[in-house]
Amino acid sequence: MPRVCAFYGIVITMYWRDHPPPHFHASYAGQVAKVEIESIDVLEGSLPPRALRLVKEWASVHQDELRGNWDRAGAHEPLLPIDPLP
């Protein structure tokens, strides 16, 4: 599963040719959440509240890049790295 970003101990990944809806995976301290790109809602799993807040903040800033990587993943193309939160 390609890693597209990491910040504050949170790792953001995407699977190639994953099923809809467009989403990414966020992991932190042994917990994993699947997050929809459009709504930035958690589809499955969970994260600690602070980590989830940071993931949602990051995703809202980088939605266009996440959509682009989703399209690349669907075509099994290399994913582009996305900048972390400052």
How would you sum up this structure, described in words?
- The chain has 86 residues and is an alpha+beta fold.
- It has one domain.
- It is built from two helices and five strands, in the order βββββαα.
- It has helices at residues 49-61, 63-74; strands at residues 3-7, 10-13, 23-28, 31-36, 42-45.
- The protein is globular, with a radius of gyration of 12 Å.
- The N and C termini lie far apart (24 Å).
Roughly how much helix do the residues carry, as a percent range? Answer: 25-40%
Main β-sheet, spatial strand arrangement:
1-2-3-4-5
Sheet with the most strands?
5 strands, antiparallel
* Number of strand elements: 5
Q: Helical region count?
A: 2
Percent range for β-strand residues = 25-35%
H/E series = EEEEEHH
Number of domain modules: 1
Termini gap: 24 Å
Helix-strand category: alpha+beta
State Rg: 12 Å
Shape: globular
Mean of the pLDDT scores?
A: 97
Low-confidence stretches: none
Brief overview, please?
This protein is α+β, with helices and mostly antiparallel strands and 86 residues long. Helices cover 29% and strands 29% of the residues. The protein has one domain.
Key descriptive features of the protein:
alpha+beta, about 90 residues, 5-stranded antiparallel β-sheet, 5 strands, single chain, 2 helices
